[in-house]
Amino acid sequence: MENGVLIGLSRQIALGRELDVIANNIANLNTTGYKADYSVFEEFLMPTARHNQFSGADGRLSYVQDRATWHDLRPGPIRQTGNPLDVAIDGDAFLVVQTPRGERYTRNGALQLNATGQLVTGDGMPVLGDGGPIQFQPTDSRISITQEGTITVREGANTKTESIRGKLRLVRFDQPGRLQKDGSNLFAAPNGVIAQPVQPPQRVKVMQGAIEQSNVQSVLEMSRMIEVTRHYSMMSGLLSQHAEMRRGALEKLADVPA
Length: 258
Fold this sequence. Notes:
A hairpin with a 5-residue loop joins strand 7 (112-113) and strand 8 (119-120). The chain has helices at residues 2-27, 218-254; strands at residues 37-46, 61-71, 78-80, 87-90, 94-99, 102-106, 112-113, 119-120, 128-129, 132-133, 140-145, 150-155, 162-167, 170-172, 180-181, 187-188, 196-197, 205-208, 210-212. A 4-stranded antiparallel sheet has the order 6-5-14-17, with no helix packed on it. The protein is built from 2 helices and 19 strands.
């Protein structure tokens, strides 16, 4: 009976973890460039049951093990904003962001200028170009970003002189599935995962005045939440039944005839 409770608890813990992942996806339905997460579980077989003398296959216990969480890196829908600093990436690439923890990578192209004229993310992290942070001048106007990521401006409102302020640094990964989320809609590359610059003939295009929306599918996530919640409640009921059976067995053992 105790083994059944432990197996049920392992399943309930796994379902609780899956509910947390689904809830986080739903909370980021409107987060620009967000990538959905999904849980991976597997069967864990103990070679023998503890505190018993079973031999052979009868002693093997099958638990549920929370193995990992994987990121769905498929692109989200593109939404036009008309903001000249907004960019969406059409293709397999990431923007590079400088953080206090080192370089990080994102698909969130909702960019802006800080008080010093530097191109930054919504959280104030500098967006890197091929030559480092991208700096604008107070007199710059008519910002234009090409499909290759080159940023040009007009120097002053009454001039046709164009200047290049930098080129967005775009990188890709041979093993994008190994990227790790690092908060603020950023990804970190673990050891062995190298950021490679995007070069022709790789088909990557920067779209100015647009952003990539979250790739979370709201209807699917709500359906998953309902299904997992039902399974969690069902498992809770089974564990309660186990507890009642154990209580009844103990009461019978304690019921000694006078």
